[in-house]
Amino acid sequence: MIVTGGSKGIGRGIAQVFADAGAKVLITGRDEASLRAAAEGLGARASYVVTDVTDRDQCEQLAAVAVERHGGIDVLCANAGIFPSARLDVMTPDDLELVMATNFKGTVYAVQACLPALTTSGSGRIVVTSSITGPHTGFPGWSHYGASKAAQLGFVRTAAMELAPKKITINAVLPGNIATEGLDGLGQEYLDSMAATVPQNRLGNVADIGHAALFFATEEAGYITGQSLIVDGGQVLPESLMALQEM
C-alpha cells in the first residue's frame, strides 16, 4: 500500500497503523531525510520513495516503484497536503496554485497513476485525507486550503461511480484538530484552547485517523464508497460557544 505525504503528521500515523496491521507500506514525500527516518521507524516492511505529487510523471513513477517492490497496489492513501495561511487580500496566484496543485491535483494524479494496479488487485481501496475545514467549517487565512479540501470530496463522489465497475472503492476521512508535530512550539495554552472547542475536550491523535483509513481499506468496508467520515471528537457539532458551555 501507498501513503502519500507519509513522512510525518497524519500520513505518518496512517502508515504506522497499516504497518502494525501487517501491510507492506510505501511512503512518499519531498524530503528524503524525513522519509528515511520515518521508514526506519515503521519497521522492515516499510520503504520510501521521494515524490512530488504535483508532478503527474512522478506519481506514475511512484506507482511503478510500488508494483516493483510489492507486486501490486491494493491500497492508496492519498494524504499529501499543505496548509499555508494567506488571507484573501494578500493571496497571490502562486499561493492559490500551490495549494490546489498539492492538495487537489496531487490527489487526482496519485489516483490516476495507481488505477491500473488497483484494478488488477480486484478489490482496490483508495482513502483520501480531506478535512473538516472547507467541507464543514472555515478558518480565516485558509480559504484556498478549504476550497482544496472541499474539491477532494467532489472528486471522491464521482470517482466512486467511475471506479465501482473496477471493484475499487474510494472514501475520505475528514480530520478535525489532530495533535501533530506541526503544533510543536505553539505552547500548552494554545493547545488547551484548541481542545476546548472539541466536545471530548482533547485533540485527536494521528492513530485516530489511521484507524479510520484502515477500516475503509478492509474487506468489511467493501460496500462503502463515495463517502466521507468525520473524525473530530465532535468538533463540528456545537452551534455556538454557549452550546459547549452548556455541556
Automatic annotation (TrEMBL):
EC class name: oxidoreductase
Annotated EC: 1.1.1.100
Keywords of the record: Oxidoreductase
MF GO annotations: 3-oxoacyl-[acyl-carrier-protein] reductase (NADPH) activity
UniProt keyword Oxidoreductase, yes or no: yes
Family from the record: Belongs to the short-chain dehydrogenases/reductases (SDR) family.
Full protein name: 3-oxoacyl-[acyl-carrier protein] reductase
The species this protein was found in: Nocardioides daedukensis
Organism classification: Bacteria, Bacillati, Actinomycetota, Actinomycetes, Propionibacteriales
